[in-house]
User: Fold this.
Amino acid sequence: MPEERRLLVVDDEEVITWAISQALTRPGEMRVVTAHSGEEALELMAKEPFDLIVTDIRMKGMTGLELLSRIRETYPGSGVIVMTAYGSPEAKREATERGSLFYLDKTFELEEFRSVVRKALEQVDRGRAAVGKGEQEGFSGLIGNLKLIDMVQLHCLARNTVMLEVHAEKVNGRVGFVDGEIVFAETSAGAGGRTAFIDILSWNSGHFENIDEAPAEQNIDESWESLLIEATALMENTAGEPDVPASGGADSAEFETPADIHTIVEDLVYTDGIVGAVVAGDTGIVVDSAFDGWDGDDNGIAEMASCMARISRVRFVVEGETQRSHVIIQFDRKRVIAQEVGELGIFLLVISSGAGVLAQHLSATDTAAKKLARLL
Assistant:
């Protein structure tokens, strides 16, 4: 007969704990214990082990983040489901697929809850089996054995203002949060903004620490949900690749001087979803180009280059000084990304499938633009 699973539900709203207890309790299969504060939860965990803890992220007294820290430090074999009323379901789903925590909106349907509990318990069993074999992966830090994406999303959901410092084997990074929004990112390899953030989330292992201070500057102005969705999609495409800096750094192999401009633009069209790459001046003169599967009008490339250059100028009129280096135009079936190369009035234009992964295309464009800047 299977062993009875033990579930602890922590929320300062009694109606939530009662509803979950009623929905999940199955004598002989699932026993549900409830607590209405983090402090009470720790007292219960000290008396008996639990397979799974379900906790709200925002509670009076000890917060869900503080409780999670204590759970990870003292009871690393227990699984955790984080409940929250903030953030889009899509962002939570993407983060759950890549992270070691499960996220559940407090407007959940009971069948959805049961499904998440089943998946979380399966993950707990896999984790315990891996520990038994001496296997472990993830980031160490104030909350050990977490995926980095877990820590990022927890700060977002808890609406924290904090700096997260991340140290991988070959590169370091920093991510800044203000009221839960991701406003800053940089790496020691020279990347900044959204490119740096996406690069940092792709690192597989290392160490992180939370610094109780607000970021001094801002170089990201997108919602954290959209950033996580793009980052997790890119991570899905690059799973299993080694940790390397995405850009910058004298020792980075990708910044060795390329043979010529055409090599750079030709390499771009080998990226999944990119069908064309053009290097052109702001007057519309085409320097070089490469295409693969593009069904557009080659004769209109010069006009497009001139238009994108003017749009880039308009961006500075509308936004003023900004750290973002890309201009993006989305059509029905195609997307055009324009990035200025240095300060020479030269632009790199990338034409991609509208169904492609934007984060990956932005990263590839940024890398190619830096390579071009070394030649032009």
Observations:
- The longest strand covers residues 274-281.
- The first helix runs from residue 14 to 24.
